[in-house]
Amino acid sequence: MEGEMMTNQEAAREFEDSLGLDSCLIGVKYSEESDPKGDTERKLAPCEAIDVVRRERVVVNLSPENCNCIGGKYYLGLAPIPREQIIRVVMDVHKMFASEQLAQKFLDNVPPPRGRGNFVVMAPFSYMSGEPDLVLSICDAKQANKIVSLLMYSGQQPFTYNLVSSGCTSLANPLITGEIDINFITDHARKRVPNFASYELIIAMPFSKFKEALANIPHAGAGRKV
């Protein structure tokens, strides 16, 4: 397919086959309207929605009404959650930081994307007709290395990496930084979504980075099937 304009279905097949992915690529798009084919009824956290899409291969519309995770609403910019409330969540529930000052600094470094839309639509990338904002790959370390190596092939520069890997930050960080996010999935998210295998992680790519990695598959050593 080199030199040709691929459909999302063709691009997904090329990427998934070349990297040997077991889970389908997931497209994520902010929208003012829900996808009419999507589920708006189930109450889900973003990490749960990622798992539902990859296992059931369905479309999920996350909104302030059906996102049942306060952190997810905050990180995805779906609702104006007070900063003090989020600090209490990361301190008391997740126990992520030794002090409120550290929690404050973390939140300063990870501002939520604002004003992008009322819905976060998630679907198998191959189902989407247009360009998503992000493409997610649930993969193992070997496959994650291949993705990073595909981007290195065309000059991926070092970038600041945020160590906290809650499922929802994999959706927020790339929209703010314009870079990929390597998400190891926190213990809290894994308890909430036991379907995540211990060896799995999430690579979240802005769509421009996904296209770059895809274009490098025929040329880079990391694109070879093994």
Report what the structure shows.
This protein has 226 residues and is α+β, with helices and mostly antiparallel strands. It has one domain (8-217). Helices cover 39% and strands 13% of the residues. The protein has 9 helices and 6 strands. The protein has helices at residues 8-19, 46-56, 70-75, 83-93, 100-109, 141-153, 169-177, 187-192, 207-216; strands at 26-31, 60-62, 119-124, 134-139, 181-183, 201-206. Strands 2-3-1-4-6-5 form a 6-stranded antiparallel β-sheet. Helix 4 packs across helix 5. The chain starts with 7 loop residues before the first helix and ends in a 10-residue tail after the last helix. The mean pLDDT is 91.
Can I get a quick summary?
This protein is of the alpha+beta class.
Mean pLDDT: 91
Taking the alpha carbons of the first and last residues, their distance comes to: 20 Å
Q: Which residues form runs of ≥5 with pLDDT under 50?
A: none
Radius of gyration: 17 Å
Number of strands: 6
Instruction: Spell out the helices and strands N to C.
Output: HEHEHHHEEHHEHEH
Number of helices: 9
**Biggest β-sheet strands, sense, barrel:** 6 strands, antiparallel
Can you tell me the number of structural domains? 1
The quaternary organization reads as: single chain
Q: Give the fraction of residues assigned to helices.
A: 25-40%
Question: What is the fold's blueprint, element by element?
Answer:
Blueprint (H helix, E strand, L loop, with lengths): L7 H12 L6 E6 L14 H11 L3 E3 L7 H6 L7 H11 L6 H10 L9 E6 L9 E6 L1 H13 L15 H9 L3 E3 L3 H6 L8 E6 H10 L10
Antiparallel strand pairs: 1-3, 1-4, 2-3, 4-6, 5-6
